[in-house]
Amino acid sequence: MKKLLLLLFMIIPGLVFSIGKGEGQQVPKMNFYGVDFTLVKTFGVKEEAGKVAKAFEEINKLIVTETKKYQYGNFFAKYVREIDQSAELKKIQFTTFDNVNIDEAIYRARVMNEAGMPTYNKAFRIDDTALASLIKSFNTGKDTGYGVIYIAELLNKEDGLGNFIAVCFNVKTKKIVFADRVSAKAGGFGLRNYWAGPLEKIFKL
User: Fold this and answer.
1) Nearest to 100 by CA among 37, 166, 31
2) What residue spans define the domains of the chain?
3) DSSP 40
């Protein structure tokens, strides 16, 4: 009888784990990769060469250190409908990011060509092919699961507006699960804070 009880105590926790996780499968990790400025266009931004890309690097550092102000973790509450409707993500209860890695976003800011950023087209949009190509080339290292990144699309100094694309993608296949265009007013002292301003508003619920 004692042996039987001992056996049950060993089996039951395993069954509970299987039921809670779906036959023992672990919930995939969710990774946050910051803000990528690779394809961004600027309208009316006239800062000296080198300063804009440096601000992009600093923006990524800022949003992951001042999380009370830049609440990127609200992503799951903001996009609960998209997650639930996705054939790939539905029934997975994401509540937080398991990993935050802005190394690739910072590297890209350091090597980007600022000369190609200015545009006279205030209606500029990144096309689907270019967006898919960016995600495919984004270095996620040995990460697994899914990734979230905000792609800077247009920084319009004349209207004080920042346009971004919130992207959720499969880290292994680099397939985009869903994407959403978002924008908000810029504002703040200094180049970094000015263009981080829209992100503060976008991240809020």
Assistant:
1) 31
2) 27-203
3) -
Q: How many residues in the chain? A: 205
Q: E strands of the chain, at which residues? A: 30-36, 41-43, 99-100, 146-156, 161-170, 176-185
The C-alpha atoms of residue 137 and residue 1 are separated, in whole angstroms, by: 60
The alpha carbon of 83 is separated from its chain's Cα centroid by a whole number of angstroms, namely 14
Pairing relation of β-strands 176-185 and 146-156? unpaired
**pLDDT tens figures, 129-165:** 999 999 999 999 999 999 999 999 999 999 999 999 9
User: What pLDDT does 157 receive?
Assistant: 96
Instruction: Let me know: does 155 contact 195? Beta carbons within 8 Å.
Output: yes
* pLDDT (tens digit per residue) in 56-112: 999 999 999 999 999 999 999 999 999 999 999 999 999 999 999 999 999 999 999
pTM: 0.87
Burial state string for 162-185 with b = 16 or more CB within 10 A and e = fewer than 16 = bbbbbbbbbbeebebbbbeebbbe
The answer for 167, left when phi > 0, alpha when psi is -120 to 50, beta otherwise, is beta
DSSP string of 53-107?
Answer: HHHHHHHHHHHHH-TTTS-GGGHHHHTHHHHHH-TTTTT----S-SEE--HHHHH
